[in-house]
Amino acid sequence: MYPLNVIMSDSGGRLLWIVFAAAAGLFVLAGNAAAQNGFNDDGGTVHESAIDALAAEGILAGTECGEGKICPDEPFLRWVMGVWIVRAKDETPSESATRFADLDGAIWWTPYVERLTELDIAQGCSTNPARYCPDQTVTRGQMAAFLARAFNLEPGEPAGFTDTTGHSHTAAIDALAAARITAGCGGGRYCPDQTVTRGQMAAFLARALDLVARPETPTTTAPQPEPGFTAITAGHDHTCAIRTDGTVTCWGYHNQADLPTGTFAAIDAGWIHTCGIRTDNTIACWGNNAYGQADPPTGTFTAITAGGHTGKIFQLSCGIRTNGAVTCWGNKEYRQTDPPTGAFNNIATDGLHTCAIRTDNTLACWGSPDSYSPPTGAFTAIDSTGGLSDGLFCGIRTNGAVTCWNGQTNPPTGTFTTIAVGQYHTCGIRTDNTITCSGNNDNGQANPPTGTFNSLAAGGHHTCGIRTDNTITCWGGNEYGQANPPPTGILTAIATSGRHTCAIRTNNTLICSGNNDNGQANPPTGTFTTIATAEHHSCAIRTNGNLACWGNNDNGQANPPTGTFTTIATAEHHSCAIRTNGNLACWGNNDNGQANPPTGTFTTIAVATAVEEYEPIKYREAGRSCGIRTNGNLTCWGYSGQAALPTGAFTSIAASSNHTCGIRTNGDLTCWGYRGGYWGYPEQTEPYRMAGTFTAITAGSNHKCGIHTDGTAACWGYYDPYFVDY
């Protein structure tokens, strides 16, 4: 961002902004007379009119995210809030020196942030020393508080949002609704903990200034039903579905937690990766990418299939382009990625073989040298095992009958509209919308429930269907939580570790799925704001601030202290949390002092169970804890393998088995400890830096992943193509 060297005021009181780009020798003039309204990335968005209105007032000048770009879907940051609100109120930026340790007085937007705090619209994120956290995102609840203060909004009657009861910003949200600045996020909800996008903030601010029409007062007295689901797919031991709002959710195993954003029209799961077609017809894939199967080509598509054989080899994805041609990517052995020419409308792959239905309804198959000839005749639909077994394919003929080849010879009988092929079982939706199955039933996967269904998916040892009321029902094997419980409603927070996952619904209740050998997937009742999971236990913060833990308690890790808390982190045998006064509390195993925290106040906490080698081929677990003090400095305690801490101020931290990483206030990411990420690798005595700048980081057992400031992801650490996508 270029520095703002000159600030002037016009006769009307609205500020005229001159941004002096000293390094580039470029002047950009924006104001009432010369507003830069022509952003090339907001056309057609619901926030376009609000963005143009603010741009015409000179409010957005200097906060663009690129040449001709406003990035309406990117998160709204605290420093941008200072600029927009101060300009919207016709306030002059502060001439005082900055009071915050993490602000540079030479940066052009610092005086706006200072003025925002002088007006008591916003305060810093911590004290001693004072920090503002300019690059932190703003939630919808925080945004309501800022606007209510900025425009002196009158208190309002309870707006009736179903997800704001007991929230710290409820009063401001009600005031915002009474002023008709917000109508909520849909379904009678406000979504107070969701991050505000730049486009949404433009709409809220433009409404507050009466630059655009305000929405009608929402009717929220009767809670609306949660969205259901429109499509479902099953891999070997994970399941994914498309909600009615177009977003994707997954549950089960094999790294399906890093879900893409956006809306989708179609989805298909392979053994350990998944691909979907967005509503703009482009493809997104996620999960394992050892052979490039999750790295789709550009272009637009109408159908997608994801396959894989034996988990580690022959990973493949294929899609049908909008012109009918087939494109495949991933493992190139045995000509799996060399499809025939012609136009197709339906496709399925198992990783070794691929079959597709031509536009004349005949079949074509290709792949492994031991491939086979498909049956003759006309077909309307096709499905395969997705790599769950050796090349079983089934198709629905134009008369509704099912035919299978290269495997199961006893397909379900009758007339069908949908077919789903599992590892050794097949299910179909009949023309009356009921389900029938045939084949292996050792886990109950071929024993469907009664009722009527619109969609169906078969996995390795489980099956799932979407009922005609848009709810999901699954049956069969559930060793990794791939079958039950399926998702319900919309989630606001999620945490996963090992083989179980827990999430917070919009009504603040908990839902968990996956491995439950210690009761870690059996959450307590009540309402919660924060969730954290370890391998065999979980902890959460209730809406009243109290802690609750459940699952394995062999070291007291599921026996939390009393009091009120704001932040929590869990490791295998100990946990730590930050009290509302900023002090730390830890509990559980303390063999290495990891549950004996230092004094002082903290903003962020991270804990891990390290691995210490003490004899060849032998190792023992050793706990470690780290925290960021309110002055931004790092402190770690417990296992000594992380003693060589980097200096400087940090905003976030993540710890795993043998090394730790933190994001500095300038976005740099620094790591220290065992660089390889695996306990047998040599320890690094000096911290090392990952290239680029970051906004978020998370830790796996032997690897890390972070989000760059441009929104792209990066992962590093111990490599195993079966589990980790790099």
Could you please describe the fold and organization of this structure?
There is one protein chain. With 726 residues, this protein is mainly beta. The protein folds into 3 domains: 175 residues, no CATH class; 177 residues, Methylamine Dehydrogenase, Chain H; 165 residues, 7 Propeller (Methylamine Dehydrogenase, Chain H), CATH 2.130.10. The protein is built from 6 helices and 42 strands. The strands form 13 sheets. A 6-stranded antiparallel beta sheet has the order 37-38-39-40-41-42, with no helix packed on it. A hairpin with a 4-residue loop joins strand 26 and strand 27. It is globular and about 80 Å long. The N terminus and C terminus are likely disordered.
CATH architecture of the largest domain: 7 Propeller
CATH superfamily of the largest domain: Regulator of chromosome condensation 1/beta-lactamase-inhibitor protein II
- Helical content class: under 10%
Percent in strands: 35-45%
By helix and strand content, what is the structural category? Answer: mainly beta
Quick tags:
Methylamine Dehydrogenase, Chain H, six-stranded antiparallel β-sheet, 8% helix, mainly beta, disordered C terminus, 726 residues, three-stranded antiparallel β-sheet
